Give the backbone structure.
Amino acid sequence: MGRTANQVIPKRMGGRSLALMVGLYFAILSGCMVGPNFQRPPTSLPADWTGPTAESRPVTPAEAELARWWTLFDDPVLVALVEKAVQSNLDLKQAEARIRQARAARGVVAAGIGPAVDATGAYQRSRSSGAGNGRNEGVISDQYQAGFDAGWELDIFGGVRRAIEAADADLQAALETRRDVLVTLTAEVARNYIDLRAFQQRIAIARQNLAAQKHSASLTRQRFQSGFVGGLDVANAEAQVATTAAQIPLLESSARQSIYSLSVLLGWQPAVLLRELSPAAVIPAVPPSTPLGVPADLLRRRPDIRRAEAQIHAATARIGVATADLFPRFTISGSVGLRASDFSSWFDWAGRVWSFGPAASWNLFDMGRTRSNIEQQRALQDQSLITYQQTVLTALQEVENALIASAKEEEHRLAVVEAVGANRKAVGLATTLYTQGNTDFLNVLNAQRSLFASEEALVQSTGSVSTNLVALFKALGGGWGDGPEQKAAARLD
């Protein structure tokens, strides 16, 4: 009876002590964490934009329109291309794989907050030495063993929790990287599509001018054969025809390359979209209004700014991880199992073995390594803060650049429209006067050149107005959202 009592009382005391230690541990977890807490970096932003956007078109701060800005161009082909790119672009898939990696890394770090339990099992057959026992025979014995080993490092000073905090920030940074890829992807698809339509329009204009110049050359040859003009006029007319014809293959090559770029952006082979996109179509028209908002919205919309902020958070948390190394570590370890020298008695209760006890360790001297690591993490935090500040400034610059480029390109396009109208009248008058013999062919030639140049400039300016608006949407961080459609496209749920 005495033996039984001696065995029971320590067990009860051990259970109460363990419960008390666990309760104390979780109480400590709720408060103590060394290292600085993350504070969102203060940022000074202007109250409004300085770009003259309002002079060219109205401005609306619609969040939903920025998330799907490409639909504002009212071009079904462009919308379809962007949506297909979101589903199959390889850069986007790679960014999503990095998110999964960051999420798994967070799980690895988070596992350190709790205990670890290992199952063990072993069998050993051995022979002892027989020397000196008179018979020179060794003893052969068997040993069977199975059980569990457990270890738990108590996160008293929050080093593990700070590591989890840093991993959470790393995961957020990976999410923002994926959004940044999405912003760039949608803008690249739109830009290449607009370039394609602009090249196709330039090809059409070149062919129209080529036809008109061939007609003028034919008329000049007839007048030469009739003796009304000299051979110089014929040579100039034929030279103009050849010059215009020489530009068409280059434009066709550029148009084909734009199709190849779109196919690759969609994660397809270059020639997949040839049949679909080779027929010419108009340049997507700019929407009547622009979802602009105010500069403060950039901190919420731009994924690169959000990523830079998450990186500051991660760097701040890692200062706490390094600081925790200044303090002692407390662990609880234990084991329980069965041990026997005969297989038939392996699972007998009498063969049980166990151990339990706390331990502490404290690195009292390491030649300043721990404090140097803390300073290293603080320097990394400073670098992250500087990167954040530079990212904000760059974002402001990109928006202002896009605003002024968009507004001034619109002014340029309106002027070119007037030039096209005037050059068309000049070509008509010069051709009539030349046919009547009231002017020389040089005037006709100059008028045709001016018309061709102004018509091509109009197409290029029209395309630039649209691409500048795409650049503005990209600078504003448009192209991503948190709606169900975006989440389904991201395949992150």
